[in-house]
Amino acid sequence: MTDLLSEVLEAHGGLQRWNRFTAVTATIVSDGELFTGKGLPQDLQPRRMTVALHEEHASVSPFGAPGQHTDFTAGRIAIERADGTVVAERLDPRKAFTGHTRETPWDPLDRAYFNGYALWTYLTTPFLAVMKGMGVEEADPWDESPTERWRHLRVTFPDAIASHSTVQDFYFGDDGLLRRHDYHVDIAGGFAAAQYVHDIEEADGIKFPTRRRAYLRRPDGRPDHDHVMVGIDLSDVHYA
């Protein structure tokens, strides 16, 4: 574990406290150009997200219709009813995105898969960095402004964990709290994203951002503020 990672984990509530919990639930509202471009514009309806903290498993409800929810793992995505009836299912869902570009339309299972891995990643950051198979190194800092320099962790994800891209970059302020998260969206043509996070809150001793905005990332690393690809607002967060 790097010195920076140790500082970051402590700033977000500490690994000992994190390990007391097994899941987190949150109300989410999401929208953005990515979903509109995929033919699935968001309706801004609040939804309830549940994420396992120590294995990759997530679910959001409602999804597609009242009484339906998703069931996500890296190897399966499904839309199910409350009684467990499977409405739609796809095994090895990553393969379905082969050849996709940023403009390729998505079906509901594509959207459900993206939601599952993306929210699992966000709601377990930064603690996911200590999971088995993760590679972590401190990389060059990022100069956000002439007066603000953010320290930088580069995380390499194992094949067993589904996420945006194998290599992702996380930037932290002097207080050790997350400021920005960079990645490529491999399932949408690999476009580069810079996700800025805001409005840090605390629940059950764990600190997390409640507002996320992912912009197209320019070749110089700067965000293109004219293109909000994904926006996510979180509220009513609880760890158990």
SSE order and pairing:
Elements lengths: L2 H9 L3 H4 L4 E9 L1 H5 L9 E6 L5 E4 L6 E6 L2 E6 L4 E6 L16 H17 L10 E11 L2 E9 L10 E6 L5 E8 L5 E13 L2 E12 L5 E17 L1
Question: Would you kindly provide a brief summary of this structure?
Answer:
This protein is mainly beta. It has helices spanning 3-11, 15-18, 33-37, 108-124, and strands spanning 23-31, 47-52, 58-61, 68-73, 76-81, 86-91, 135-145, 148-156, 167-172, 178-185, 191-203, 206-217, 223-239.
Which short descriptors sum up this protein?
47% strand; 240 residues; mainly beta; globular; three-stranded antiparallel sheet; ten-stranded antiparallel sheet; 13 strands
Descriptive report:
The protein is mainly β and 240 residues long. The protein is 15% helix and 47% strand. The protein contains 4 helices and 13 strands. The strands form 2 sheets. Strands 3-2-1-13-12-11-10-9-8-7 form a 10-stranded antiparallel β-sheet. A 3-stranded antiparallel β-sheet has the order 4-5-6, covered by helices on one side. β5 and β6 form a beta hairpin. The longest helix is centred in the middle third of the chain and has 17 residues. The two termini are 26 Å apart. The mean pLDDT is 97.
Q: How many H/I helices?
A: 4
In angstroms, what is the radius of gyration? 17 Å
Query: Mean of the pLDDT scores?
Result: 97
Subunit organisation of the chains: single chain
